Amino acid sequence: LMLPPVSPSPQFYAPAGPGQGAAPEVPAFVQHFMGIDFGKKRLGIAVGNRLIRRATPCKSITAKGDDRLQAVTDLVREWEPQALVIGIPFHPDGAEHVNTRAATAFGRQLAARCRLPVYGVDERYSTTAALEQGAKDPDAAAACIILDQFLEWLP
């Protein structure tokens, strides 16, 4: 009798990268991810998996307050990811700003609400890149860029 692997801890993991500490280990059995581009006005959503290491843009969410959390929770129920990946914005020099703290707080709320691990990713320039690529929905495209970056980083 094979038991399914234990789910990773439903907590927020801060962004890892140059000067940002060690990267959290993502268990190999975690295959399906939902990416989130955090913004004050909109959230971009993408989904992807570890096997093909590619993300697909889904949609943008314009809800505010608790409705934002509920909208993401509804998408988690629909798409059934095993973990979430949220872009955490920083200034070009790597310094934190107001949105850094807001995105981190939102990531922690998502971990508690969705009971999934939430991995933070440095998302500097993701929306700019999406706009330069001519994306019709730049927020969803930015979420795709964030998730692609995360998937490429995985072993």
Structure description:
By secondary structure, the chain is of the alpha/beta class. Helix content is 35%, strand content 23%.
Brief overview, please?
The longest helix has 17 residues, at 98-114. α3 (126-132) packs across α4.
Uncertain parts:
1-6
Integer-rounded radius of gyration: 15 Å
SSE run: EEEEHEHEHH
Assembly status: single chain
The total beta strand count reads 6
Q: Which overall shape is indicated by the principal axes computed on the Cα atoms?
A: globular
User: How many DSSP H or I helices?
Assistant: 4
* Distance from first to last alpha carbon: 28 Å
Q: Provide the helix percentage.
A: 25-40%
User: Average pLDDT across residues?
Assistant: 88
Sheet with the most strands, sense and barrel status: 6 strands, mixed
Derived structural class: alpha/beta
Strand content: 15-25%
Physical arrangement of strands within the biggest beta sheet = 1-6-5-2-3-4
